[in-house]
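User: Can you predict the 3D structure of NUDIX hydrolase? Sequence below.
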Amino acid sequence: MTWTTRATRTVYENRWIHVREDEVTGPHGDGIYGVVRMQHPAVFVVALDDAERICFVELERYTTGRSLEVPAGGSDGEDPLVAAQRELLEEAGVTASEWHDLGRMNALNGIADAREYVFLARGLTVTDAAASQREEGIDAVRWIPFADALALVAEGRITDGETIGALALAGIRLGRFR
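Assistant: Sure. Here are the predicted structure tokens for NUDIX hydrolase:
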């Protein structure tokens, strides 16, 4: 049986998210379903330097606390690649000469309509981005070898789901999971 939406109403909306409540009929009968829709797709960047280290940003998230993540952010209506390039520069102070599209993900697909695009950046140049990092809430930029990053995931020290998904896509592209 497919889902049928009988009615919908907006519960909350701002420039980043739209929250609605749907009256639905699904496989188990009638019910209410809450859905969060991101206004624009998000982008995630796995930036890999010549020493095979990945660029991470460390910050404090209001919802979950301390977090170690790949540079990421909203596309604000831009082309995803343009947004990825901007986010890498703003959050980490890094530019890249090579960009590879790693694929698309969906965040929290049980409750959200949140498209995400993942890129691999290589040929990196580090610049100064202290001002934009403060504005973005970035406490530190850390460079971690690929294998060590995977160990941090296994240890539960990297818990951001999108970062874990982005690392998996990068690992597949780079042949690290054979």
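The helical segments are 80-92, 130-136, 146-154, 161-173. Residues 4-38 form one domain.
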